[in-house]
Sequence to fold (393 residues):
Amino acid sequence: MSAFLYAAVRTPFGRFNGALAEVRPDDLAAGVISAVLAETPGLDPAAIDEVVYGNANGAGEENRNVGRMAALLAGLPTSVPGTTVNRLCGSSLDAAMIGSRQIETGDADIVLTGGVESMTRAPWVVPKPGRAYPAGDAALVSTTLGWRLVNPRMPAEWTVSLGAANEQLAEKFDIDRKRQDEFAVRSHRLAAAAWDEGFYDTLVAPVAGLTRDEGIRPDTSVDALARLRPSFGANGSITAGNASPLSDGASAVLLGSAAAADRIGRDPLARIAGRGVFALDPQAFGYAPVEAANQALRRAGITWDQVGAVELNEAFAVQSLACVDAWGIDPEIVNVRGGAIALGHPLGASGGRLLGTLAAVLRERKQRWGVAALCIGVGQALAVVLENTETEK
Fold:
């Protein structure tokens, strides 16, 4: 039995402290669940077997199990169960992979997946003291991004910041600042063009007055980015301009079996044809998509020369370039409608964005095969191969 993608909707992605700063993450998630159900009005919500949602934080208003909370807030029947998965940046792609396996094994017929992150509203936390009323000070720890409350037994080389880890990739693969900045400018240019041409109109549901991704800078240039200071050391190449920004947003992806088409009320857009997961040294996480995607392709029974579109999450320009170089593919098939550097990267939501965009690009370009992949902090990556159901044989 195969699993199919029937619908995908996301919110516009807001900037840190931007237009979505006042919206709770569970409300973002509930809103986009409602939006994907609006895309399939023939579906009885009680027919959904499971909600599987991704979230990287969970420390605040997500209330730990945002999948269940969002389902309830969206008005789904209380009989529809919900769970939350945390694989950091890969959380919503992991959620879709889990949902697709449930369908393939026959454990479910329709699964609503997705993910959410409000990096703006991620709380500060205070570790509990060993004893009551300690005499010393206590420090607030931000849960927005990266390592926190690190176990001292972890090797120091593993726990470097995400940016410092990718500076290591830049040095290892000799990817210079100019090339990274050029990649970033391309992301903004393609994202702006995609919005102007109406590509995202059916993929994005407005929220809190925001109708378009907030971080796109269509007028940026390599010269403008070259004036930015390096973020991770005076001699570094990574800046705020060639890395993904802190973001807020949510995504939802409706999966089902072939037999579910009648209950959903529409034909599927794409088939989940292969999945891949890979892990390596934590500080090399940016390079992990290379083998995750290769693994997914092997499981789909195809090779890179058959792939017509790639959605690779642009956590950093340098790691994206390193992956594209390693695959040996035409860079022009990668992120043709912009990437995370321009659109934003709300951690738990990005995998759902990749799947929805990839399915739409495959249809737009009449390509059969596509790959969605992203790197994950602490040395992991996920990848999914989609087959366009309009072109399958």
Q: What stands out?
A: Residues 177-196 form the longest helix (20 residues). The chain has eleven helices and twelve strands. The first strand starts at residue 4 and ends at 10. The radius of gyration is 20 Å.
